[in-house]
Amino acid sequence: MEHLSALVKEQSIKSFQSAIQKCENAWIQMNEKGSNTTLLEKRLNALKVGLAVLENAWNEQNHPYTSDELAEARIILKGLVSTIKNSYAKSKPGSPQRTLLERRKKSLDLAIQAIDDFCGE
After folding, report:
1. Are the CB atoms for 5 and 99 separated by under 8 Å?
2. I need a labelling partner for 42 at 20 to 30 A (CA). Which of 20, 25, 35, 58 fits?
3. Is-above-0.85 flag for pTM?
């Protein structure tokens, strides 16, 4: 994995933590309404895997995920990158939303790279 500053690593970890928290809150609300939460559960799991892989790469923290789980998470994270690109294109330059999207995309790209490095791709 490329050499990154401590700030980029910290922002990436925080970005994942924020996304996970937002998904968990959305899951609670959707579950209370009886909505289908399958897609959200898959995204939430993929975000948790992505965070664990980054923590493994940068802080040498072990993770319990198998190669199959990593491969599935990678696919979902790639899909989230596409979603973020679409939102980014609609956001205003210099807006807080655009900054958030930039950081989230960077963190997802780094997690995908870390999964590839971990799996030897």
Report:
1. no
2. 58
3. yes
